[in-house]
Amino acid sequence: MNLLAEMSWPEVEEYLGRDTRVILPLGAVEEHGRHLGLGTDFIEAEAIALGTGEATGVAVAPTLNYGMSLPLMGFPGTLSLSPHTLVAVLNDLLRGLYQHGFRRILAVNGHGGNVASIHSAVQMLAQDLPGLRVKSFEWWMDAEVNRIVTEMMGEQTGSHASAAETAFMLAVRPNAVKMQQLTGRDAPVKPSREITTQQTFATLYPDGIMGLDPSGATRAAGEALLKKAVEICVRELEEWPES
Amino acid sequence: MNLLAEMSWPEVEEYLGRDTRVILPLGAVEEHGRHLGLGTDFIEAEAIALGTGEATGVAVAPTLNYGMSLPLMGFPGTLSLSPHTLVAVLNDLLRGLYQHGFRRILAVNGHGGNVASIHSAVQMLAQDLPGLRVKSFEWWMDAEVNRIVTEMMGEQTGSHASAAETAFMLAVRPNAVKMQQLTGRDAPVKPSREITTQQTFATLYPDGIMGLDPSGATRAAGEALLKKAVEICVRELEEWPES
Amino acid sequence: MNLLAEMSWPEVEEYLGRDTRVILPLGAVEEHGRHLGLGTDFIEAEAIALGTGEATGVAVAPTLNYGMSLPLMGFPGTLSLSPHTLVAVLNDLLRGLYQHGFRRILAVNGHGGNVASIHSAVQMLAQDLPGLRVKSFEWWMDAEVNRIVTEMMGEQTGSHASAAETAFMLAVRPNAVKMQQLTGRDAPVKPSREITTQQTFATLYPDGIMGLDPSGATRAAGEALLKKAVEICVRELEEWPES
Amino acid sequence: MNLLAEMSWPEVEEYLGRDTRVILPLGAVEEHGRHLGLGTDFIEAEAIALGTGEATGVAVAPTLNYGMSLPLMGFPGTLSLSPHTLVAVLNDLLRGLYQHGFRRILAVNGHGGNVASIHSAVQMLAQDLPGLRVKSFEWWMDAEVNRIVTEMMGEQTGSHASAAETAFMLAVRPNAVKMQQLTGRDAPVKPSREITTQQTFATLYPDGIMGLDPSGATRAAGEALLKKAVEICVRELEEWPES
Amino acid sequence: MNLLAEMSWPEVEEYLGRDTRVILPLGAVEEHGRHLGLGTDFIEAEAIALGTGEATGVAVAPTLNYGMSLPLMGFPGTLSLSPHTLVAVLNDLLRGLYQHGFRRILAVNGHGGNVASIHSAVQMLAQDLPGLRVKSFEWWMDAEVNRIVTEMMGEQTGSHASAAETAFMLAVRPNAVKMQQLTGRDAPVKPSREITTQQTFATLYPDGIMGLDPSGATRAAGEALLKKAVEICVRELEEWPES
Amino acid sequence: MNLLAEMSWPEVEEYLGRDTRVILPLGAVEEHGRHLGLGTDFIEAEAIALGTGEATGVAVAPTLNYGMSLPLMGFPGTLSLSPHTLVAVLNDLLRGLYQHGFRRILAVNGHGGNVASIHSAVQMLAQDLPGLRVKSFEWWMDAEVNRIVTEMMGEQTGSHASAAETAFMLAVRPNAVKMQQLTGRDAPVKPSREITTQQTFATLYPDGIMGLDPSGATRAAGEALLKKAVEICVRELEEWPES
């Protein structure tokens, strides 16, 4: 596989002579309920990125493990970049990739809180860097992926630390899953026009789970879900002509 | 009506003795097809804010006319704050409101490109400012509002410079509507994981309209839509206990 | 009139084919004594800008309602951008205007606290943007305007929330004038080398008025003053060859 | 004399036990016509500061030699901080002085381009630092000083690199004065609403002098002028009760 | 082992009840000669951090894979944060750790280019965060570690991509080592007072190796070196009383 | 001598026609034990810069008196730029020098805390400014200089406010030396992996001296040391071909 981490600079040079695509996994370090590890988001993003890299031969950049998690800072262990910092990091990384000749960048983003910063960074860079193209894939917002989740585990309204995330982690990092810590409580996602912050999140979702209790999560669903996510990323990379 | 623009400082002082709510209209200056004025977003936001202020007596702050419109900078006349600048502006305004004693702020946001910055600003401020609460209302993303649009003008898949926006402007600022400039072309919104930028927007939507041709827009629908939007904002303000 | 707010992008494109001038009104939201609305500065700037646009056909950009008002933050309702934020906003707007082809920009600035930021932004942009030219007009600092003020209302030493400002508002937004709130107190402007801040302003000028009590302000003087201000702006635009 | 540069930390500690005043000289490095050295502004500011320190025993901080000189960057040798950088420097220095216990700071500012940044920095710091008071003295804008200039050298309309500045430099650093380089050309200061930038300054004032040819400058006038400037600064320090 | 990535928030909460130490591995993504992978620095830092976490039970935070590598941007694949961005990231992470209650942070830093930013971030935070203590360990600058290198592989003057680094990678990630790519060329480190930049680095060290050809590197030396590095980190954590 | 402070712009223009080298002295304002003035670092840097300018005819820029001294802020009188501010200042100055045509810049840096910022600024600028070359000279880190120190005053382990610094100041600014304030206490430099901050510095080095008591410092050693430092700088300038 083409991991930038393991490639030497002459190997990258050679790669850029025949391909301008790269996969960039983006994560976060934040609470995921009483039962999942703080690294859930970057572990999931990396799993999809590695699967996609293996299937396509497209180079995979090292994972940015930290993301924008301000509203969850009330939970012990959450570590957040400010939105401004995250935009600066993405600006530096994307600008660097472009400088070397990469042009089509697939961000495999494991965390909702990063979406705004990815868009900001790309839209600002587009002023300067002609031909830069960035796709962003968020597995848990994907209709095809969610169809599998529903088929295998029933209707799931949850989002953060949900059955889908739990299943995913059972498949890729069981050490970070402690099902016995689940309380059985549901915390239905309350639609509201009030912006959720560190001040209000813990009141709305005291266990750190948004949605139904994920006790029914299965490793098999996680594996199916990962397979589908990789399949979509492969398709996105293959159907992406250089501009 | 309680317009901050017309209130003197002793009047604001007196107001704050009995209420901590305020309405903040947020707009943008960007192309809206061949037929709508560049000010569409701030004109609409201001119309809803004024209607809501009139109905409730809640103070209305002056409109922030400019917003984050980078992806549309390719069209003549679009003027955009960078995301970083917009966050700084919102930080200054919200911090100022808080310093005076405002605690519940309803952002009536007329522009999708502002959403990320509003969230960023509020989530950062929440670290420092206990008791600050911010709601954000986006009329075009609202299910109730969209139901009216559909009832009165048929199914509309459009988003930017759509029939709904056109109807709204016919109702509130007909001078900024030039229906004769419409080309009749549809530009269906193409779902894509590629992030739209200044480089790609004009290729996807050459007239600057995202969606179906809005020729069928009616002033009556615009009036109904505005009424509904105000009704929702009034409800949001009334059902908002101080924390 | 050529309001950018009402012009569509093809209209701006057509305009830029024959003219590179634009008027940009800049305001502030800050206390103006016990009798004037917080929006005084942007209301006045907008009135001059609209009058000038009407007389010349030069395009008028939407008003930036907020400005740099830090020293007045002690008075309820004042909302201030930090100097750094204001420079960022002006940088974004001027850069955007330049990108579309505007070259001669008349800033109609209604607020003294903005002057430094306008100069900073323009002087920094001038490093990058050849041919950018910016004029800044401040009505209350203008000798011709002040002559009219004196002729019609007697010698006025005041500056902020003065008889001149009061007259102006009587002419353009009487709803924002509450003459009955005036106390009759004079607060002579004390020349000092100490920099006025939020900590000291309210001590020096407890009503928020700098100068003589403006009870003698008349609407007629306001109208004459506006007419003269527009006349000067028209002249500035007409005697401004493209470089 | 109490030069911070020569005082050890226990001496500063002892000083702060009996006084909270300090003098901070601010300069610039920029062209001053064909005849004066680039350091003119900081040399003058330092001369006044040292004279004042000697007369009062008030501590004198090291000079900030560089200032905001963007509009003069077109002339070889001018070195400018951006306005943003200068505000950051002043913020750091004033905050540091305050942290140690200084409360009354007299900025002896030798350069017009610094004024806006001094005001910005102080007005922002005033939000955080109760009791911070800053005076700013600009010798060339002072009526008393200008009276002496006129008495000794006749009416002078010049400002930058004028007869007054030349006289001052003859008095304090004759090595930096080359009278033989003067061309005898006058460059009357043209009042204009257009903001002067690097692009336009050299066209308006090709020798880098704003105003009348300063050939008539005398060392005696420079000495008188310095004496008066020091006298004013002494008065400002003496008539400045701690708040 | 206490990996934050695998710990849930209640587990972190429980940990903080008995310990305030944490290990933070810091890396870089940059060329390491023709034979080592771009991820060398973060792979090495993570290996030491994991070893130390295992030996002590101290929590290990996720690795920051990217660092400050500007001078190496001329080599394909190097990706660098600007110094300003890196300081912002470290500020956010250290502030977050502190907010949760961590007080003694051992940064296991795999990259020389990060040292300045770590110091900057910590020294700025120390103004605000009483009791924050940070140690920084750089294995290749350590006398004890270098003694082992010399004993096992002879005198090594190299630094970047040296025999020591090569041995380390043979021990922990042989997939990222391609010994056959070595050219046998030495590139002695030239002491110079000129600051090395992207413009000059590749001229001085064309293969991207600073120092002697590392062909003699052995896995055994890498293992010994890692063991020693872990031993030192364990000692640093154990001999670190809470202040 | 070619002091920029005394040169007029036509003289700089003429100089740049034949030379692209310049000397930039960088200092700091920070405690230097009970016996040395706060300006020690900039006084020393300026002395070396002036000596070098005199010997070579290379232009000398005005001294940047302030530097990065955060860890010493606990001692009265220390004034520090934040690292971010210092990088911004250096960026502005180096960019300005480059704009005028200077290409080889010798930073005579009197303060260890500035090193990181000098490197950061230069490495960032190198992305944009082809041909920019910067050398940085730190006298107290120089082997040749230290040999003289040892020969004349015995082995010295001290660094900050040491015998070497004391000797230097006796030679160049005896007014800033108060030998009678010395306590005779040694404060051996304790090697530690913990990053020294404002919180810990004063505990480790209560007098503000790092190392042995400098009572044995002699003016003769200071003169020899300065002579050697100048000699090295002259050599660095002479053996520096334009690229």
Spans of chain A of 5+ residues with little confidence (pLDDT < 50)? Answer: none
Percent of residues in beta strands of chain A: 5-15%
- By DSSP, the count of extended strands of chain A is 4
* Largest interface (CB < 8 Å): A-E, 56 and 56 residues
Q: The biggest beta sheet of chain A, please?
A: 4 strands, parallel
Distance between the termini of chain A: 26 Å
List the helices and strands and how they pair.
6 copies of one chain form a homohexamer.
Chain A: H1 9-16, E1 21-26, H2 40-56, E2 59-60, H3 83-100, E3 104-109, H4 115-125, E4 133-137, H5 143-153, H6 163-172, H7 198-204, H8 219-238
Parallel strand pairs in A: 1-2, 1-3, 3-4
Helix pairs in contact in A: 2-6, 2-8, 3-4, 5-8, 6-8
Would you kindly provide a written description of the structure presented here, covering whatever features stand out?
Six copies of one chain form a homohexamer. Chain A has 243 residues and is α/β, with parallel strands linked by helices. The first copy, chain A, has eight helices and four strands; from the N terminus they run H-E-H-E-H-E-H-E-H-H-H-H. A four-stranded parallel sheet of chain A has the order 2-1-3-4, sandwiched between helices. In chain A, strand 3, helix 4 and strand 4 form a beta-alpha-beta unit. In chain A, helix 2 packs across helix 6, helix 5 packs antiparallel against helix 8 and helix 6 crosses helix 8. Chain A is globular and about 55 Å long. The two termini of chain A are 26 Å apart. Chains D and F meet through helix 1 and helix 3 of D and helix 1 and helix 3 of F.
